């Protein structure tokens, strides 16, 4: 099995997420690479697929409108210059989330315009496109998602992922939004039809407007089956990606940004990331432990230790938020993670460090090895 730790020995990994607006020009890339080197970061997670568009030259996806110079390939440049500074570059890829602009329709060549039947539906028979166009304020609505259950979606995503791994000199492929939006999602009509043909049960019976039969043993049995069907859709994508990656002479690091609680991730978002590590489909999981509540922060870490065998903690890098807490709170949480044998961490995000000189200078002196 390919292992990130076999490559890096005892090095402590200090990662930073960099949003796509900092990849638009050579000047901005040079700036964050210089800052990352100054601050002692080892791994950069640079956002190259945001909302169905690319911060690189793809054969299968439009280049982001943020990149004004059509000849400029941001990912190619950041890999070249980042490696000169000894930085590992992970291509941050937003997986299922596709579009979130309420004020403008997507371009004609955007995937949402071409294949609207690929998008997600919820248990109220409302599509994500319906919500995007709705005048109601859906505060918890993250945007239009691709449906993991639609037969064509994972095939398409796999093509994009293979292109990145094969065509770019990246050290890692980092998957974000590799999940459902919640337990009420997963009712894409085409995806439900596949389930019906396979099991003879119509998933529409699990939807809110369906006749009530949720006291029966049959309901419980088939609901669990449908929950696993949703998990398996994402599992299959990870396995196929991993199989392809392992066949390469120089495989890249496969990582994912995941929900901090493994049980919540598995049961509410169908993101079974603990299993992904156990199966070897994922080299590194980065739980987004963004809570400002210290007790919950610790509980999430303890749950991870309880679910995963001890040796997997080296493959779990803790995602720490700095936009929602002051530096002393960040330092205290990172120390808690280290005390529980989670020495590797990733900070969200560079935006805070470039805007806050005090935070920048404090991070500069921070060292978990002290």
Summarize the structure.
Helices cover 41% and strands 13% of the residues.
Describe the protein's architecture and organization.
- The chain is α/β, with parallel strands linked by helices.
- It is built from 14 helices and 10 strands.
- The chain has helices spanning 4-8, 26-38, 74-84, 111-114, 128-133, 153-167, 189-199, 217-246, 262-268, 273-279, 294-307, 327-339, 350-355, 357-365, and strands at 14-18, 43-49, 88-94, 97-99, 144-145, 172-176, 253-259, 284-288, 318-321, 345-348.
- An 8-stranded parallel β-sheet has the order 8-7-6-3-2-1-10-9. Strands 4-5 form a two-stranded antiparallel sheet.
- Helix 12 links the parallel strand 9 (318-321) and strand 10 (345-348).
- Helix 2 (26-38) runs parallel beside helix 3 (74-84) and helix 6 (153-167) packs parallel to helix 8.
- The longest helix is centred in the middle third of the chain and has 30 residues, at 217-246.
- It is globular, with a radius of gyration of 21 Å.
- The protein starts with a helix and ends in a 5-residue tail after the last helix.
- The model is unreliable at 1-7 (pLDDT under 50).
Report, as a whole number of angstroms, the end-to-end distance: 32 Å
Largest sheet: 8 strands, parallel
The number of helical runs is 14
User: What class do helices, strands and sheet pairing give?
Assistant: alpha/beta
Low-confidence runs of at least 5 consecutive residues: 1-7
Which range best describes the helical content: under 10%, 10-25%, 25-40%, 40-55%, 55-70% or over 70%?
Answer: 40-55%
Could you give the order of the helices and strands? HEHEHEEHHEHEHHEHHEHEHEHH
How much is the average pLDDT?
Answer: 92
Rounded to an integer, what's the Rg over CA atoms?
21 Å
Q: How are the strands ordered across the major sheet? A: 8-7-6-3-2-1-10-9
State the shape: globular
- The fraction of residues in strands falls at 5-15%
How many E strands?
10
